[in-house]
Amino acid sequence: MMKAYIFPGQGSQFPGMGKELHEGSDKAAELFSSANKILGFNITDVMFEGTADELKQTKVTQPAIFLHSVVLALTTHDFNPEMVAGHSLGEFSALVANRALSFKDGLNLVAKRALAMQKACELTPSTMAAVLGLEDALVEEICESINDVVVPANYNCPGQLVISGSTKGIEIACERLIEAGAKRALPLPVGGAFHSPLMEPARTELAEAINATHFNKPICPVYQNVNAQPSDNMETIKKNLIAQLTSPVRWTQTIQNMITGGASLFIECGPGKVLQGLVKKIDREAETASI
Q: In angstroms, rounded to a whole number, what is the distance separating the alpha carbons of residues 10 and 140?
């Protein structure tokens, strides 16, 4: 049985995340303590005791989810991935899990990514919306017809696509998508237009940090968001990681390609079970589990 480990992205956080893990493992407690020092503030205070609103701050959300996922992976005694993938932010967790990045370097990049994205969000009023019940091609066609920034951002599963763009563009898109027969086209409570051209300032800033970071040869392939293809080449991984900020997350295609590549069990490593649900919607026969 070939195991594929999958790592969640922003939106899977919850109050109290990681507290039980911290209390139940000396190694986990050590990693959390190390993370506080690397970040320069006690993120564990927010993770363990903070409110849902405090956890929604991008500068907290992204490192918190990364930490929860990576600490789980690094403290699981039989963790031996044969392939990995992560949804958006989760790709950084996946790269630490497959040894392409050190814990410290991965956390530093995620912290820089979060701040860069937060700054980019402040430049232009922007948002995202979930579209349910339409074929991807029709959603793409409607996005292209709008004279504003509106693009597909997350191909989550068949019939579920998230779009991203300017606030005005998303409003127009939602109206047209409902008219075209979408079951739902609802703006999401997010800080900005992730995975869209509006993230270009963040992409430029993160590119400098990624190019200055040492990457190792991974122990297994990572299926990357940008093209849904596996890679174990360090330069390819870095290039795709940079492009990810302004490109869509091709999650449907990623899971399909992992199955074609031999994956028979998908294990979600991180807070929540969102990715397991998406895997089942992509392929009902796929087996799922979580750490």
A: 23
